[in-house]
Amino acid sequence: MITNLLGAVGLGAASGLNAWIPLLALGVAQRTGVVQLSAPFDELGSTPVLVVLAVVFLVDLIGDKIPAVDHVLHAVGALVAPASGAVVVMAQENLLTEVHPFVAAGLGLLLGGSIHAGRSAVRPVVTAGTGGIGNPVVSILEDVSSVLLTVLAIVVPVLAFLSVVGLVVLGFVVYRRWRRRRADRRAVGGPAGAVPGVAGPPDAWQRGGAQRSIR
Question: Among 97, 120, 195, 203, which residue's CB has the most CB atoms within a 10 Å radius?
């Protein structure tokens, strides 16, 4: 049960980075006999579901690399990512026998939703700072991270859990540094149009200097 719970945490977090990778990976793993999913989630390994997941995954994979389109997909992902997180957590075979389904679903919703909210908040900053050039790079990093978390969650759940903890800590540290730098820039810049080291509006200062020079 503990192993499944740790793996579920990894899969839920991976859903926040890319909602379709964990679903598709679990479907393939179920189909090949690598994992055994709880009913009715074992239908992820059926041919029709795998085909649909593969098509949607490719559309999302390409669209998330295109500025403006990625923001639309992130808006849709605000609903899809938490739902994906809930499914991959509840799909763990032995987890539902020990944990109430609503608790398992809530854990998946929280993981998928919070991680997705974080990446959605970062993307506009990247777009503004790089003119959209950095969007594909960030998207690729998110996809690779989702794949790694998914593989670890299936093969080595403990490492997946530790990776999620590391990502959360890293995200918190980066966010605090960004807030601190933003506050420092505002403190140094002061009010818009102010002359550094001189109190009062620049026009008044310039007029005063001109009058003193005339005298």
Answer: 120
Give the number of other Cβ atoms within 10 Å of residue 79's Cβ.
Answer: 12
In a domain, 197, yes or no: no
**Cα–Cα–Cα angle for 122, 127, 130, nearest 5°?**
115
**Token couple for 100:** 């109430």
pTM of the model: 0.76
Q: Residue ranges of the alpha helices (H) in the chain?
A: 2-17, 20-32, 47-63, 69-90, 101-130, 135-155, 157-189, 202-214
CA distances (Å), origin 132, targets 17, 62, 98, 209: 19, 15, 46, 45
- Please give the distance of CA 200 from its chain centroid, rounded to a whole number: 44
Looking at residue 100, the DSSP 8-state letter turns out to be -
Q: For residues 213 and 116, which has the higher predicted lDDT (pLDDT)? A: 116
Domain count, the chain: 1
In a domain, 199, yes or no: no
Q: What secondary structure does DSSP assign to 41-88, as a single string? A: GGGGGSHHHHHHHHHHHHHHHHHTTSTTHHHHHHHHHHHHHHHHHHHH
For CA atoms 111, 114, 120, 125, the dihedral sign is negative
| Residue 144 tokens, joined | 């690779």
